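REQUEST FORM: STRUCTURE PREDICTION
Request ID: SP-0412
Submitted by: Lab K.M.
Chain count: 1
Length (residues): 298
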Amino acid sequence: MIQLRPATSRSLHAFARRQLIPHRTALPYRLYATVETHPAAPSPSSQTPPTFPTTSNGTTIDSTPPPPPPHPTRSLRPLIYATAFLLLGLTTGHLTLLSILPPPHPILPSTPDDTLLLAALHTALDHLPITQDLRAHPQIWHEHPAYFSLPRTTLPHRLTTGPLSGPTGLAIQQIFHHATEPRAINIIYCGRGLCGWPGITHGGVSATVMDESLGRVAIREFKAKTGVTANLELDYRRPVVAGRFYVVRAEAVREGRGERKMWVKGTLEDLEGRVCVEGKGLFVVPKGVELGEVEEGF
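STATUS: Completed
RESULT:
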């Protein structure tokens, strides 16, 4: 025999709730899935043409966005610096090479090279502006080569017409004496065989040229037509570059002038008039010494 237990109020409530509230069934998963929808593309007929803003007078304003900025160009500064340093290096190297090169071998006298180069130098002398200007006044300036009046056999035994002569030496010594005043102009060419420091004419050569050029003026003024150097003062202002023409100007100084002594001042200049050597010399006719008379045209 089954004995029934009396139902409590809590159990009765639970039973009633199960009977009255139907059991909820789980809905399919697809009903809870989110469906993503896209709007339908409008048909061509339904599209509206784009509109552009206009000004008050009806002019359409182009609203097209500006093009993107151009790419930055590469700077030329490195190229400029490289070119500048290249030119600087080439110039420095060339000048250094010229300064250390030995002078050319002397050209032997009376050879074809000697004759050809001397002819070219005399042609260049004829085309110098100072030469043309002096030759335009022959009544004022009397012209002759240096030591033109001396016997030809004695020229090789003189310093400036012997060892220092030739195309690589004092190839040109053209004298212009003033007709009425105690002054003279000597146009010279300093060859590359006269260098002391490479490319620069030796200072002793410049002194020799100044001595002879100043002495010419004094000897022409002395009654004895002869004389010697008693004192020579020189100031070297600029280098005398070899392979160029130069002009020596000499003029007698009036003060302290006598029958047996005379001061003469002068300059050695380049063709642009820049003074390279400046000096003065005292020339005298010594007593008790017989000196040969120097003829005109020396």
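NOTES: The beta strands are 141-145, 170-178, 183-190, 228-236, 244-252, 261-270, 275-284.
Reviewed by: T.R.
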